[in-house]
């Protein structure tokens, strides 16, 4: 895809300084910019690179005044970082704007879909699947019976969406995601063997949910596993059966959440966090990476450690922990002196 500086300035409502016809076909960091690339300058630490960059077009803040000669066309905007993010979003929209039905695709009975839909080769759509407008289903995607997918959803290659799942508007589901597999439900019988408990519920993703590559979200035993509006999941996360995650909560990679746990709104959960089942975590909670959560957490807490402590208490305790060898040595000396006082 090729855009001129004039077109980009128009999209961003920016002020152009330089050649409006110069064309760009890729995006780059300012320090790695080459001819034909578009870059941006937002952080003052990188100002020196604008004088050496070979990028054809650079987005800058309106208050930027060059102190040396430039070899790049400028587009001046209120917020260079935000504007570059808009360009990235626009670029993705254009890049992913596939339409039509490739072959072979398997469509079961009573499949319905809206306008501007893309179905990639080797996709499978089960009975009574419903797709909204502008849904993009990439190759090798499996969609089970009675799945509902709303408008403007992208499902990347190789994702699996089991039966009865409900996907809201503007969701992005990345490659390798499995939505709606059985929850981990087993019950020991009188012989000490584990019998499977049927998992008869479903998974609901509300609007604007992002699910990273390789993440798994299990169906509920009864009822629904629910990710509320605006939830963002990183790669390789495990969400167990009957979990509920509140609006606009974000979770980093390799976190595992056990069954029936409820997480509040606008929480931030770091990588490799382990959360036990059947607990409640309040709103606006911050959990640092590699923490272990074994009980209920009140709103607005910041936690770290395993088992997790209040963030401030953890840091104070850690100071003592890393000094344990010295403290132990001092205690040994005190004990020796109390038993055998010097000079006695």
TrEMBL record:
GO CC annotation, single: membrane
The entry's keywords: Acyltransferase, Lipid A biosynthesis, Lipid biosynthesis, Lipid metabolism, Repeat, Transferase
GO molecular function: N-acyltransferase activity; UDP-3-O-[(3R)-3-hydroxyacyl]-glucosamine N-acyltransferase activity
Function comment: Catalyzes the N-acylation of UDP-3-O-acylglucosamine using 3-hydroxyacyl-ACP as the acyl donor. Is involved in the biosynthesis of lipid A, a phosphorylated glycolipid that anchors the lipopolysaccharide to the outer membrane of the cell.
Record-linked PANTHER family: UDP-3-O-ACYLGLUCOSAMINE N-ACYLTRANSFERASE, UDP-3-O-ACYLGLUCOSAMINE N-ACYLTRANSFERASE 1, MITOCHONDRIAL-RELATED
Matches recorded under HAMAP family: LpxD
UniProt-recorded name of the protein: UDP-3-O-acylglucosamine N-acyltransferase
Pfam family, one: LpxD
Pathway the protein acts in: Bacterial outer membrane biogenesis; LPS lipid A biosynthesis
Protein's GO biological process: lipid A biosynthetic process
Family under the similarity heading: Belongs to the transferase hexapeptide repeat family. LpxD subfamily.
Coiled coil: none
Domain UDP-3-O-[3-hydroxymyristoyl] glucosamine N-acyltransferase non-repeat region: 22-89
Catalytic activity: a UDP-3-O-[(3R)-3-hydroxyacyl]-alpha-D-glucosamine + a (3R)-hydroxyacyl-[ACP] = a UDP-2-N,3-O-bis[(3R)-3-hydroxyacyl]-alpha-D-glucosamine + holo-[ACP] + H(+)
Active-site residues, Swiss-Prot/TrEMBL: 241 (proton acceptor)
Gene: lpxD
Quaternary structure and partners: Homotrimer.
Family matches, as SUPFAM superfamilies: Trimeric LpxA-like enzymes
Enzyme Commission (EC) number: 2.3.1.191
Organism of provenance: Pricia antarctica
């Amino acid at each position: 895809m090729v855009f001129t500086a004039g077109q980009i300035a128009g999209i961003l409502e920016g002020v152009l300084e330089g050649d409006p016809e110069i064309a760009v076909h890729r995006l780059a960091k300012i320090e790695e910019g080459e001819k034909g690339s578009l870059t941006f300058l937002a952080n003052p630490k990188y100002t020196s690179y604008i004088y050496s960059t070979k990028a054809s077009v650079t987005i800058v803040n309106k208050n930027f005044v060059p102190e040396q000669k430039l070899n790049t066309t400028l587009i001046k905007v209120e917020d260079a970082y935000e504007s570059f993010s808009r360009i990235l979003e626009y670029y993705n929209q254009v890049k992913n704007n596939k339409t039509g039905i490739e072959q072979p695709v398997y469509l079961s009975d009573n499949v319905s879909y809206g306008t501007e839909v893309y179905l990639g080769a080797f996709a499978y759509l089960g009975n009574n699947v419903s797709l909204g407008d502008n849904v993009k289903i990439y190759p090798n995607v499996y969609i089970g019976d009675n799945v509902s997918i709303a408008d403007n959803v992208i499902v990347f290659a190789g994702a699996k969406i089991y039966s009865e799942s409900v996907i809201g508007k503007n969701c992005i589901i990345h490659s390798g995601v499995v939505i709606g597999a059985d929850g981990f439900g087993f019950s020991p019988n009188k012989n000490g063997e584990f019998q499977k408990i049927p998992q008869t519920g479903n998974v609901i993703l509300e609007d604007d949910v992002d699910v990273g590559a390789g993440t798994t979200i299990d169906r509920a035993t009864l009822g629904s596993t629910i990710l509320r509006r605006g939830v963002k999941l990183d790669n390789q996360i495990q969400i167990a059966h009957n979990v509920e995650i509140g609006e606009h909560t974000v979770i980093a990679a390799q976190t595992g959440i056990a069954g029936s746990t409820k997480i509040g709104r606008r929480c931030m959960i770091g990588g490799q966090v382990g959360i036990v089942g059947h607990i409640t975590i309040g709103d606006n909670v911050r959990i640092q990476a590699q923490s272990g959560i074994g009980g209920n957490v009140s709103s607005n807490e910041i936690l770290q450690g395993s088992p997790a402590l209040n963030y401030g208490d953890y840091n104070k305790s850690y100071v003592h922990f890393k000094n344990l060898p010295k403290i132990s040595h001092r205690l040994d000396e005190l004990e020796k002196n109390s038993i055998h006082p010097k000079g006695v």
